[in-house]
Amino acid sequence: MTIDKEIGFDKILNALKAVGEETRLRILALFQTGELTVTELVTILRQSQPRVSRHLRLLCEAGLLERYREGTWIFYRLAEVGPEGDLARSIMKFIPFSEQILQHDAERLAEIKQERQGKASRYFSENAENWDKIRSLYVSENDVENILLNVTSDMKINDFLDVGTGTGRILEVFANRIGRGTGIDLSREMLAIARVNLEKQNLHHCQVRQGDMYDLALANGSMDLILIHQVLHFADDPSSALRETSRLLRKDGRVIVVDFAPHTLEYLRDEQAHRRLGFKDEEVNMWLENVGLQTKPVIHLKGTKIDLSIWVAHKV
Ligand SMILES: C[S@@+](CC[C@H](N)C(=O)[O-])C[C@H]1O[C@@H](n2cnc3c(N)ncnc32)[C@H](O)[C@@H]1O
């Protein structure tokens, strides 16, 4: 690994001291993928909240982890930029994940992720029928769809992928602009509705199938345009989902992320299984750039309760 910037003597000493303790090394190992809240870490490590918080504070002070508050939840993740972030990722390479204690932690983390996924899946299986109505609650769908068509009007789109396609609406919107369309979703219930919708409109060049946005069984460089419409706020690891997306893009291919701008409607976590309360422009742009994509200025749309942002990036 190449370290872009030199890290100062005190900083490296602090960082190494911070991970030079069993629990903190275990904590670092848990951040191999994704973001975690203190509550989740307390459940995994089976230690008191004050102890876990203290360890997290030391890892943040050393620059290895980043912390951010969103409503009443506080998220932690591996530092994304800077030499400390590089150092954290380098240390990660040497962590013996086969060690029993780390395996136990990984198993508990998997259980937590499964529970979380179960909550979102239940929400979508219970609300598949109503999803088209729920989707239109926040921002005018027409406006969003017109923007999506506008920002891609210069493209020849042979292969189109809609990640987290739900009821397949985005496939319908792009249907007469594309050669072939594929929609991927985890929820069988949503996909069943998408199939009916596509069939009704005779969109035989579009198909949907079950799949996970973190591990899409599609070939490298096989897509011209990828849409991720209202999906990332359910993700526990949005940056990995974007890495997978970037892998699939052809040169000059484009990815468009549509999601909420930061908001304070915390009840959406309970009622609609949201994990994140929207995203800042620079957060999603950083993830896109980190996976080798070139970003364009973010487009904003005013909503009734929540504003929407549209991130566009292309593969150079
Ligand atoms: C809010 S809906 C959006 C559906 C559609 N994109 C739209 O805008 O109407 C989010 C969709 O993402 C799907 N989803 C969530 N996590 C996923 C994952 N890991 N892989 C694939 N789909 C996922 C859900 O099943 C759900 O259908």
Descriptors:
alpha/beta; Rossmann fold; 2 domains; three-stranded antiparallel sheet; 11 strands; single chain; eight-stranded mixed sheet; 316 residues; binds S-adenosylmethionine; Arc Repressor Mutant, subunit A
Summarize the structure.
By secondary structure, this protein is α/β, with parallel strands linked by helices.
Show the helix and strand layout.
Blueprint: H1 9-19, H2 22-30, E1 36-37, H3 38-45, H4 49-61, E2 65-70, E3 73-78, H5 82-94, H6 100-127, H7 131-135, H8 141-150, E4 157-163, H9 169-174, E5 178-185, H10 188-200, E6 206-210, E7 223-229, H11 238-248, E8 249-260, H12 267-272, H13 281-290, E9 293-295, E10 299-301, E11 308-315
Parallel strand pairs: 4-5, 4-7, 5-6, 7-8
Antiparallel strand pairs: 1-3, 2-3, 8-11, 9-11, 10-11
Helix pairs in contact: 1-4, 3-4, 3-6, 11-13
Bound molecules: S-adenosylmethionine.
S-adenosylmethionine binds near residues 167, 170, 212 and 234.
What is the CATH-assigned architecture of the largest domain? 3-Layer(aba) Sandwich
Kindly report the average pLDDT value. Answer: 93
| Tally of separate domains | 2
- Outline: globular
The end-to-end span amounts to 22 Å
**Rg, nearest Å:** 20 Å
Approximate helicity band: 40-55%
Number of strands: 11
Q: Uncertain runs with pLDDT below 50, 5 residues or more?
A: none
* Assigned CATH class of the largest domain: Alpha Beta
Structural class: alpha/beta
What is the name of the CATH topology of the largest domain? Rossmann fold
Strand content: 15-25%
Main beta-sheet strand count, sense and barrel state:
8 strands, mixed
CATH homologous group name of the largest domain? Vaccinia Virus protein VP39
Order of helices and strands: HHEHHEEHHHHEHEHEEHEHHEEE
What's the total helix number? 13
The distinct bound ligands, ions and cofactors come out as: S-adenosylmethionine
